[in-house]
Amino acid sequence: MMDGLATQNPSSALVLSVSKKNEGSVMITPGPDSKPKKKICCACPDTKKLRDECIVEHGEAACSKWIEAHFKCLRAEGFNV
Length: 81
What we know:
Blueprint: H1 2-22, H2 45-58, H3 64-76
């Protein structure tokens, strides 16, 4: 019977800690105010590559579409750009 109590208590403690952690929190996914998990240089490699190639070939003025796409990706990753 002691084993039954031991297995019940950890799950109860887990539920309580999760409940207290999320208490009053509406957002489950990280929002724009959360700290990014990556360095900005490593985030969004696909849009960064397209942006950089466009700028090298056509100049910055002609690449606003790719620049904005990269900024949008960085904002989604949690960066304030």
